[in-house]
Queue: 3 jobs
Job 1
Amino acid sequence: MKKMVKKYPFSGRVLFLGMGAVAQNLLSICLKRMDIDWAKVTIIDMKKKEGPDVTEALKRGAKFVAVRIEPGNFEEVISMHAGKGDLIIDLTWNIETLDLLQLIEKIGANYINTSVEVWDPYDRSDKKLHEQTLYHRQMMMRETIGDFCGGKRPTMILDHGANPGMVSHLTKELIKKIWKERRKGVKRPAHFSEAAADLGIRVIHISERDSQKDMTPFDPNTFPNTWSVEGFYEEGTAPAELGYGSHEEGLPHNGLEFSSGPKNEILLRATGYDVQARSWVPSGPITGYIIRHGEAFSISEYLTHKKRGKEYRPTVHYVYCPSEQAQFAIAELDARNYRMLPKTRIMRDEITEGRDELGVMIFGIDPKAKKGERADYGYWYGSTLAIDEAREMTPHHNATTLQVAGAVFGAMIWMIENPEKGILLPDWVDEKGSEQIFGIASEFWAPLEFHKVQWRPEGEGKFLLTDFLEKNGEEESVHRDDFLK
């Protein structure tokens, strides 16, 4: 018997900003799962995009507008295609989020993006090191629009892809699992920060290994990747930054603190491509790049807990082991002192095997461990989506883009059903909403796996950042003056 597929209704207009690999995968989901009038759908990108999903959307009545959105035209272009009660899905990487938020609040639309952006992410000419960080972008937004809070204004969810985004909900789900495992019969505190502190959670890695591969020979002039090459390049050549835990013993040698705001993060005087850390996924231990990501800020801030004058916070950062082809490209970039390669390529139909293991890896030392019970622990929870499984759900796409698109879709549906929650980071969605988003998005992440992890980093068992670091980028930083001013 054919399984019934739930469709979600929406009567307003829908505006897609950007139609890259993730947006096309999201479009594929929407074609199957949204009950909408496609004549009310507009797709905007710098140039006309082709592909089976775009073709089908246009066939159903959607419009494609090929225009480059810039500071001088964004208000006119966006206002023409979206207004009160409509939905804007921003999957671009170079339209300034702060400008968009101010416009969108004015026109009354609902909005979702996967990252906080600026108009020209490569322009570092007059920016100090801390001004190049995501932390700085968050502070600039708060200065202009206030703290991220609810209120009777249109729902606008920021930083909600796979990571940042879905991993914030995964973190909550994993904390619930650890609590159930280690605090049997004890009621969990209402706020997750108190639960994390009680459990002694010290480190949260967003650990990812992408083993998808194709048979295309590597071309030293082409950067292949399973998702946005431009986005990955921008993140990788920016300073590494991470949420820094209260258990850490001083700063790393090249670590720098922020002078204002919640001060929950530090940055390293090294690019993300030059900093590597050890972590774990179900296929085994990995070494990956500490690429800056919004979840390092949002999760570490959300889990900060203050009690009797003491502050608790876990260390939070991304550990990313990209596809083999992408690693070849990063080595080529290194040889060119990170000058971008002339060509890019998204790996899709050419992929022959592999999966994307993406999840939350938590290490902790339980201050309430029972006698005879091991106090230190490790748990992983996440997706092990294989290329064949991804293609069954959305043909012509890969596991990585489906994980991102599925996460956007889950948050998008919640936003449609909750249109007046104000500006939110994923972590600030209430527990019920978080569970709803997780429930919808996890369909596209399955299989989800939960593991008790025996692997530990080297060191004295304190789970310090230095225990996990494979390379801190100090030696390489002397050659990166163009990126680390």
Job 2
Amino acid sequence: MARKPLLLSTSLLVAGLVPAASAQVQEILIDFGRINALSNTDPLSGDVYNNIASPGSTGYSAANPFPAIADLANTAGSSTGYGFDLTAVNNLPPAGTNLGIGGFNATGNAGLAYVGSAGGDTMFVLNDTEALFRLGDLDGSKTYDLTMYNFIGNQGRNDSLWTVGGSTLALNPQNNTAGTVTFSGISPDGSNGIDILFEVDDTGTSAQQGHWNVLEVNEVGGGPRVLIDFGQNGSLSNTDALAGDAWNNAAAAGGPDFGSIANFPTITDAVASDGAATAIDFDLVSVANPPVADPIGGKVGIGGADFPADASATGFDQTATRDTMFVLTEGNDISAEFTLSGLKTDGTTYDLDMFGALPADRADTLFTVNGQTKSYDPENNTSSVASFEDLLPDANGDIVITFEADFVAGGSFAQGHWNALRVTEVPEPGSVALLVAGTLAGLRRRR
């Protein structure tokens, strides 16, 4: 069943929070259509397109697979290293014709929001079929604005629906020459990707056909990232072998536990992933419900370097993911409180990604930040990340992180594990906006 979309006037620019202008790094255009109507270069602007193209009006199947793109070109024609693929289809009938490429409905520019060879042909989804697409291998330090456009001529259709990051936007394709929907300020997930669910409003009528003609991706410059590895002195993360990123190490000088709060290896003036200095500090400030007040009874400390599995899907290097910081919540409902300090107080927000793993049975690890609680199961974890987005520091420039295990569910296995932390500065708050280009057509250079 299709979810309820955000429905707004088709003549307005509406957003929950409109951010200040930010620097566009590059733009990517994808045309969904037929091989005989490829969009190679926009004759109006010179923009280069990527083509998701099929021979004719046909559904995707094993015999006619989705034509994924492994390396998208930007509008200048340069390689980005980013990919686009169909990753899952729900409720596809045996005939396999509920998702595919439809006919060509316009020629030339035809007064559309995008050049006619891109805006005039369409990818379709029918009835209750849901298609999940993924933009992959993105830059985790950037944010992305995703704009969708559809057009089907004078044919009655239900609204097409897209869902990104839990928010759903709708657009009706019938005679749509200017309307678009845009998700703004989207940060990639822990695996540096963005998932897009495409479907049609399958209620009410027989016109249950969703359409998607163009995807526009605008990459927006993000702030610096700070990477922290919790581990032993013998397995430091100095330079990330995956990306060349610089790391900060909260490393135990010896022994498995900190012994006291004062012995936590505080990080002062952390370096960003590019090696530049920041004013960000990270410290252990309190432990709730310890057996003794201080020392902390061996309940918070550094474990062994005992998880050699490849967790690169999280975007963290193995030298960071293989060893762990622990909190032994069992018995006393113990939790540890950390503070990120030295953060900006000018409206800048921060995204946090936590990862933890070890090859043993454990309860879920829990993190609470600004009233939100996120979790993952650390047992043989190679992909799950606890992520917080758009966190606003307090007036002192602090963000407080509570680290614990699921005490009620875990029993004797209530041991939390935290191997790595990624802190990403977001220059302006993310938002989800509905852009309808009817009143903005003069500003769009693809007209």
Job 3
Amino acid sequence: MRSELYIYTLHFPFGKSENFLETELPFLAKEFKKIYIYPWTFGGSESRELPENVEVRKLEVNSKASLFSRLKLLWPHLGNKKVRGDFRYQIAHAENLLSHAQQLTLEIETQDAIHYSYWLSDWATVLGLVSEEKKDLVFVSRAHGFDVYDERHPMEEQLFRKEQTQRISTVFPISEKAKETILKQTASCPVVISHLGTDDYGLGPIPNEGKLNVVSCSTVTELKRVTVIPKLLASLGRDVRWTHIGDGPEMETLKDICAKLNSSIQVELKGRMEPEAIMKLYQEEGFHFFIHLSSSEGIPVSMMEAISFGIPIIATDVGAVNEIVNEETGILLEKDNLEHWKHHLKKVILENALPTRKRTRAFWEKEFRADNNYMDFCSLLTNLD
């Protein structure tokens, strides 16, 4: 068994993102003698608390990549019009990747270590480039959403898949949908599903009868379509209390829409909340259902959190959402059909067709419980050749 683990992140432990890694890390810290974390973006106003055997390192990139090596890296993607149209940035990004790889090759240990990229993106590309020099490098990567689906990438193509997967030990997508997509993009590596998971805070309270109590949790962006939720709830023709957790660039638009709702719709826009505060809300307040209308998704951790409290979900059938929303946990809506949403939601409410809280939570226990999933993932890592 290898005693050291190197983890490569976007920002973690800095900032507020990658909360799910915060849940996973204590399990990894019990399995490895020493863990090193390399954030792609180092530093920030806040840093999370870490286990004692975890050290954060900054990769000081000083080397410069040759024009030839940059063009060689980009060459397979020059058929992409978006890459050509953004060529100045792409050639600079290629230099950044190659320079990271050159520096990392000088710094890291390989004989007694596993290298783990949290995303199948820039760090995975860098590790693939390093493996060209360090043949004994053992590296793996998780794969989530933006790093899997071409439509989520600014270039409408997941660049550098060959470099990321040609020598990788295993890719660990978080969903069946992500696995299917990766296998279409490359057949050169083992792909094993490894679900994320959330902690157990118990079954949430039973919601009060009468006013419908609804919750949602996501960034307020065009992709998430939060601005459609108040219009949909208003179409029910009954008293509704809607709580939204999260903020984003469309927040002012959302506030304007909510200000025009009639008095039957009570809205509370919580903005961004700390994870602990969200869990406390779910522990103290009973919600009839969680609603999510995104146009593209992986498997949102926000949904895992909701079903752990027994809150059923009504969500659009996009990405891998149907792997968490099913007859055990909620109702799926067509991707882009507001009239269908209105009709179906009214029917669901009228017929009381949502699954029970205990049934919803039981599915979470089986599929998305953190201690089970992360212990299984640790076992997969420690058994790598």
